[in-house]
Amino acid sequence: MAITLRRKASLAILVFSILAPVRPVCAQQVPGQALPAVGAPAAPASGLGAVGSVPAQIFNYDVDAGVGETDNVNLTHSDKVSQTLAVADADIDIEQQRRLYSVDAKGSFSYLDFLEGAYSPELVGRFDGLGRVSLIPGTLLWVVQDDFGQAQVDPFAPVVPTNRENINYVSTGPDLHLRLGSVGFVDMTGRYARTEYQVSPFDSQMFLGSIAVGRFLSSGSSLSLDGSAQRVLFTDTVLNSDYTRSSAYGDFEAQGFRTELSANLGATKVTQGTESLTGPLAKLKLSRKLSAAATLTFTASREFTDASTSFSSLQSGAISTIGTIGGAGATGAVSTAPAPQTTSNYTVTSTSLNWQYLRNRTTVSASGQWEKDSYEGQPALDLTRETAQFSVARQLNRHFSAQLQGSLYRTDYAHTDYAETDGFLGLGITYREQRGLEIRLRYDHESRIAAGLGAGSNYGTNILFLTVGYRLKPRPAG
């Protein structure tokens, strides 16, 4: 199964790479922008192939290879074992928008070889790709989305190679956009999706349909009534129960010169086995451009979700660093998602604040997030997560740049005697030649402080990497 999932991830990356032209053009982008989750309302027809739209042109990649050393490869409290690693990293960032297609693909991968035999060689990383092809320009699109990465298997144990599994989530289907007169519109979406887990018995397939009927209030705002329904069927029906989840809500979108607002309000019903649950659906996203360099984004939500949907829409804040033992890609760290403990739907309540400052030579990001997961009838799984992150990057001169990152990640199980706080601090120095050659020295420190049942899993580790690689340097347009 591990080989199968890796082959599918490689195929997805190949498909998205073929769709995207290889001619690099410099363009400004906002890092951390999330891909739409499967089942999200379709974008207005003007989003692809619109007359007068400015196409996005981004094609960046990094590759490097080198050696590393860790003083605690097993992430244990005592009897620490050092290990030398060989590493090969690859990052890719593609954003292409043309009249008949668009591609948005981001990936970061590391191949690790534990030279003294602590673990078998492995490939870790995250890939999120979204491709759209216009079958009828401005009206009918075909969409393909793939999300590949790793998640913990045991949520109470440190993230080492034996405690993570590959997950692949792929979906495809049409988007239909119809105009009703000069201000009305109807958006319809259909999706078929499959989720495959390397270890957990949660493999499933999903059928989804959604419709939105609304009108444009102005050139930058719209109001619609949306409905969606999805049916999830599991491969293992002994351990899992098939379910149906349906939602109805109002959606308001507004975009001004410096402010963007998105708000959903409605309800969701879940029928799984003999149980039926109904709860609120509320989402708010507010983004404000404070200046030419600074942007502040606030989000808040309360909704039903499940492990597969949560994985496909996984977002990072200022950085993604949880579970980075040896797994840092060319631009930083490769994230490991939380462990999928059940296929039951649960209520997630969350809020986040993200601040970004982008200048020619300096980039600063800071974010905070709070999340509460509540499982009906399974209180032992209830938890809260609190995350704080920051990242600072500076181009020191023509050849040298530096980056400093840090995070605190706290998980508390409300009805179980367990809580943990994970810390991360990373520093990188890069020497870059004009032709794209890079030499990078990177130091990471990770730690865990656990209380209750997990007190014995405390650890600290230091990791040092020296790599040599190549970075594609975009050329100015024209």
Describe the structure in your own words.
The chain has one domain: Maltoporin, Chain A (Beta Barrel), CATH 2.40.170. Mean pLDDT is 84; it is low at 6-54 and 320-333. The protein is globular. It is 5% helix and 59% strand. It contains 2 helices and 20 strands. It has helices at residues 2-19, 307-312; strands at 57-70, 83-97, 101-114, 122-136, 140-152, 164-180, 184-197, 204-218, 221-234, 243-255, 259-272, 275-289, 294-305, 346-358, 362-374, 383-395, 400-413, 418-432, 437-452, 459-471. Strand 3 and strand 4 form a beta hairpin. The protein starts with a helix and ends in a 7-residue tail after the last strand. The longest helix is centred in the first third of the chain and has 18 residues, at 2-19.
Short description:
It contains two helices and 20 strands. By secondary structure, the chain is mainly β. It has a 20-stranded antiparallel beta barrel.
Low-confidence blocks of residues: 6-54, 320-333
Average pLDDT rating: 84
H/E element order: HEEEEEEEEEEEEEHEEEEEEE
Characterize the largest beta sheet: strand count, sense, and whether it forms a barrel.
Answer: 20 strands, antiparallel, barrel
Helix content: under 10%
The rounded Rg comes to 22 Å
Total helix count? 2
Query: Into how many domains do the coordinates divide?
Result: 1
CA-based shape: globular
Structural class: mainly beta
Broad CATH class: Mainly Beta
Rounded to the nearest angstrom, the distance between the terminal CA atoms is: 46 Å
Portion of residues in beta strands equals over 45%
Q: Tell me how many strands there are.
A: 20
CATH topology: Maltoporin, Chain A
CATH architecture: Beta Barrel
